[in-house]
TrEMBL record:
Species this protein is from: Phenylobacterium parvum
Limits of the Phosphoribosyltransferase domain: 25-161
GO cellular component terms listed in the entry, alphabetical order: cytosol
This protein's UniProt keywords: Glycosyltransferase, Transferase
Name this polypeptide is given: Hypoxanthine phosphoribosyltransferase
Catalysis: reaction(s): GMP + diphosphate = guanine + 5-phospho-alpha-D-ribose 1-diphosphate; IMP + diphosphate = hypoxanthine + 5-phospho-alpha-D-ribose 1-diphosphate
Signal peptide: none
Record-level Gene Ontology MF annotations: hypoxanthine phosphoribosyltransferase activity; magnesium ion binding
UniProt key word Glycosyltransferase: yes
Phylogenetic placement of the source organism: Bacteria, Pseudomonadati, Pseudomonadota, Alphaproteobacteria, Caulobacterales
One Pfam family this sequence matches: Pribosyltran
Length: 178
């Protein structure tokens, strides 16, 4: 019996850390000390933890909140419906918000989050993702910044899962191509 191939490593833990720090260098001057970071759960958690600590050592120890969204389930394509499993806990009225997520593909998840944050009265919404994938359809809104240009592969690790697997890897890989 042959063993199933694991993910192909695309970017190491060290390269991930460097990319997060470079992103924090660019973002810190754009952020108000009163800004709120909104992490998109579940996948955004690992990136948000690293990015917020990198921002804190750059003079931006920001408030933190989360939105729990799901759209892919156990599939490798967006379902077309973004379900809100849990909303914001604290008011963002009149405050700058930085939404952070692990990966942007169709952009539908980030757009759903943007609408929720705008509806909650944020004065400005910035977005940052770790991995920016090629747009599957034209017209996707780009994030305000991102850490890494990803290939058109299904990614795992650093928050990204394949039906629940591989999320906690410290590096990013891609599932073997069929
Ligand atoms: O740009 P999009 O095509 O919307 O894809 C990006 C979203 O896909 C994943 O979420 P998923 O629905 O898999 O939930 P998860 O955070 O629990 O992994 C990921 O965490 C992003 O939020
Ligand atoms: N795990 C994972 N989730 C995604 N959501 C959108 N693209 C991806 C991807 O490449 N991997």
């Amino acid at each position: 019996m042959t063993e199933a191939a694991g993910p192909e490593r695309l970017i190491s833990e060290t390269e991930v850390a460097r990319a997060v720090n470079d992103l924090a260098d660019r973002l810190a001057p754009r952020l108000s000390p009163d800004a709120v970071v909104v992490c998109l759960l579940t996948g955004g958690l690992w990136f948000a933890a690293d990015l917020t600590r990198a921002l804190a050592v750059r003079g931006r120890p920001l408030a933190f909140d989360a939105l729990w969204l799901t759209a892919y389930g156990d599939k490798t394509r967006h379902s077309g419906i973004t379900t809100v499993l849990a909303g914001l806990r604290r008011p963002v009225l009149g405050r700058q918000v930085l939404i952070v997520d692990d990966v942007l593909e169709s952009g539908l998840s980030l757009e759903a989050a943007r609408r929720l944050v705008q509806a909650a009265g944020a004065s400005e919404v910035l977005t940052a993702v770790f991995a920016l994938k090629p747009a599957p359809t034209p017209g996707r809104r780009p994030p305000d910044d991102f850490a890494w240009t990803a290939p058109d592969r299904f990614l795992v690790g650093y928050g990204m899962d394949a039906a629940g697997a591989h999320r906690t890897l410290p590096w990013i890989g891609a599932l073997p191509q069929a």
